[in-house]
Each structure stands twice: as C-alpha cells, then as structure tokens.
Amino acid sequence: MQNLFDVLTTRPLKLSQRMLHSLLTDLEILINSNIHPEIIECAFDVLDRYLYSYDINDLLARACYFSNIQTVTVVLNRWLVFCDTYLCIDSQKVLNELIFIALNNDAFVDIVRLLVKAGANVNAIHPITKDSILMCVVDKAFRGQTLAIRLVERGADINFVNSKGKSVYALAKSNELKYLCAYMDSIKRRQLNQQQVQQVQQVEQVQQVEQVQQVEQVQQVEQVQHIQQVQQVQQVEQLKYYKQKNRNEHYQSTNRNEHYQSKNRSEHYQPKIRSEQNIGKQL
Question: Residue 154: which pLDDT band, with cuts at 50, 70 and 90?
Fold first, then answer.
C-alpha cells in the first residue's frame, strides 16, 4: 500500500512496469478491503495515465463481491467508460453475472439497483440455483421489497417458477411481504383483465372475419346467379334467333319451290296454247 500512497502523493513523471504492477495489486487490496473509494478513483487515474492494462471485469467482480455500494459505483463507472470506448458486445451478460456474484454482499439490494440501471436483464436466471433476479431480491425480505417493485415495473416476470417449483409470489408470501404480494395481486388482476380484453377482441375479430366471409359468399352466389341468368337469357335469345332463321329459311325454300312449280306449269301450258293458236289460224 505504501507504493500506492507514494505515487499518489509525489506524482512522479515516470513509473516502471514493476511499480505499476505493484500499484494494481494495491488497488485490488483496496477493493477487497472495502475502503477508500476516493483513493481507488485516483489509482484508476494513474493506471490510465500510464496506459497500464488491467482486467476491469475482474476488478468489478471483486467490488461486487467484497465492497460497499460506493466502491462498486466507482468501479462500475470505470467499466461503463471502458464499454463505451471499446464497444463491448457482452456487457449485459457481464452485468447479469455480477448480480449473482453480489448475492452474498450486504449491499446486494443497492448493487442490483445499480446494475439494473446500468443495463442488466431484470429476468436473468442464476446459472446454478435457476432463481431469477426478482426471486433473489424477494429473498432479502423487507430490504428487497421496494427494489422488487421497481424490478416488476421494469418488466420482471412475477409468474416465474424456479427449478424447485417455487414461484415469486409464494416466496414473497412466505417472507410476509404483504405490500409486495398486494402489488403482484394487482398486476395479476390487470394482466387477467388484459387477457379478457384480448380474448374479446379476438372473438370480435373472428366475428368480423366471418361476417366478411359471409358477405363475400353472398356476393359470389349473387354473381353466379347473375351469370346463370345472363346465360339463360342468351340461350333463349339464341333459340329465338335460330327458330326465326329456320322459319325464314323454310319460307324462302317454300317460295322458291312455288316459283319453280309455277314456272314449270307455265312452260308446260305454253306449247299447248301455241299449238291451239296455230290450229285456229289454219282454220
């Protein structure tokens, strides 16, 4: 620790790698000892000034496991700057793991509030116990009641059941968290009302679809009937046309036959008339 205090007080222009490594070791001790968050902030400044690499994830995990909320806040702010600078893609996964690392910390409720605000998933599941964050918070009894409500407001699942078959509501009831139970009851009633409204809306949508289908079916039937009527009218008109055509053809053929018959008769009688005329002349 003496090396750290010497560096912070004298502010040398250069520091050897050995000195920087010793400074990092002192920083880890400070985080584990849960003391002097201001000195921790200064130690980070020195390491960053000399571009000395360190595992910020490990330091933040140490802070969540050992330290108070002030130290966790300092290290978390450094971690957030690191993530913004280097565009960490697994930041939420790290935050979820940190919540369960802080499970036995006396400042667990405050740390969870801090990590959720930073972007942790409110429905993250413990990899071993399979409990949700909400269940872990509710298990802290009265200390976690206010935070549990905040988590529910942020979207935490109140219907979650762990691997032992225990629900969040059952855990809250066993811990006699009456206010939290009443709040979850109101949420469930609201969800039930929403489900009923959704069911009614679904039934109305189905009825509307059925009405539209019925109207379309009626329109199709009317179209078919109209087409059939048009076809029948066309058939009748065609029959009339062909009947009239046949009648005309019959009349024409009859007239032609009469014409030919009359012509033949006239041709038959003309020689007789001429012969009679000749005989009359001779007499």
Answer: confident
